[in-house]
Amino acid sequence: MWKFFPVPIIRRRIARLDDDDIVAIDSTSKSSYGDCLAYIKWGKNKEGVKLRQTNEVVVYSLRTHMPVYYRSFPGNMTDARTLAMIYRDLEDAGFKDIPVITDRGYETIETLETYILKGRPLIMCTKTSQKFVSSVIDSLGVMETGLRPDCMELDLETELYYYQCDVQYDMVSIHGTVKPTKGLKLNLYLDPVRRSRECIQVESDVIVQRLDLAQALGDALIVKDEKAFKSEVPYYDVIIDKDTKMLTGYALNSAKVSKAIRFSGYFAIVTFKVAGDAQAILRLYKLRDEQEKYFNQMKTQMLSDRNRTWSEEGYEGRQLIAFVGLILSSYTKHIWKSTGLCEKVTTTLEILDEMRSIRCIEHNHKAKFITPFVGNQLVICEAFGFAVPKGCDTGYKSKKHVEKKKRGRPPKAQNKKVMSS
């Protein structure tokens, strides 16, 4: 049975979103020491640790960089399968029609069609192997200049070539009628530096695979696992004798080589009901890179790199603590970036280091006192709007009593007449 994150908390987080907000969804794996939790499963561990894991999903606002939603899924569940459940939770909590940014891990035809049918705005990085993307690349024609197709323009800031076009994606209703899609656009980008590297890599792989096959053919290699052997030489078609399992020949698959070179350097972003040209869409998509920093922050500063719990109750409690801690940590980073504090303090971790030395000291039968605030501690308090405790700032006023003078001009001295006797 699924145990959901407390809905009132999510509702309060969603209530902070504005109509011009954009949220991003991403996940990270977290290894677990316990072996009795319902969510831990063997899956693709991003850290390479030989422990069972859970998938931790976080939804962030890209305007305030604050977390909106946090939930765990089993470690063997793919990102694409979790998206429908995430959005259902958000809808139940009052999520508005705010654009959602996802990476290629969430990209499936089912996800795209779900967003189209429900009219939800979407920014999704997609694979160039998708049919509607590859058909657009093929329609651009052969690169006559050697760097780009003639229809693509250069962005001087990113040094990328870009191209935007409408996508014809007809949907079929439950009654069998064809419904054309409006507002679906493909943003295509070409990185010439990356393309040159990938083309060189393709040619290098072709040479290496040919040499390996020539040596295997000369050694009369017996192939025990045909599928695994073919995966090691993907640019060649190999001939294996069915009876002896011996390699008898090979030939270059020109179609695979041409396809690899054709798509080299390209990447694509699909948008639905989101305004903006290809350059603006790319700038929005780049904002989601902040999430990787938040995951690193969660696993370093917050010491939440492992599931150190062996019971479901303890696990749920740690989830709540991790979410609240992530809110506080993200707010610290937001203030650090938005108030100019980053010019005085290099990192958010340095903020904690600066304030960690402050102590409240209490002696028996004595009043408490707080250690002085000095240097960057005063700057940090000012950025966060904290009032420095009385007597803890650097200023000191003398306690000597000074008689206050009356305002204005002092009265004139009275001349006294001396009476003669």
Molecular structure report:
This protein has 421 residues and is an alpha+beta fold. The chain has three domains: 7-191 and 265-334, Transposase Inhibitor Protein From Tn5, Chain A, domain 1, CATH 3.90.350; 195-262, no CATH class; 339-393, no CATH class. Helix content is 35%, strand content 19%. It contains twelve helices and 16 strands. Strand 6 and strand 7 form a beta hairpin. It is elongated.
SSE order and pairing:
Layout: H1 7-14, E1 23-32, E2 53-61, E3 67-74, H2 79-92, E4 100-102, H3 109-118, E5 122-126, H4 131-139, E6 153-155, E7 160-166, E8 171-172, E9 178-179, E10 184-190, H5 192-218, H6 226-232, E11 236-240, E12 247-252, H7 254-262, E13 266-272, H8 278-286, H9 290-299, E14 306-307, H10 312-338, H11 348-355, E15 360-361, E16 369-370, H12 376-384
Parallel strand pairs: 1-4, 1-14, 4-5
Antiparallel strand pairs: 1-2, 2-3, 5-13, 6-7, 7-10, 8-9, 10-13, 11-12, 15-16
Defining key terms:
single chain, 421 residues, alpha+beta, Transposase Inhibitor Protein From Tn5, Chain A, domain 1, 3 domains, ten-stranded mixed β-sheet, two-stranded antiparallel ribbon, 12 helices, 16 strands, elongated
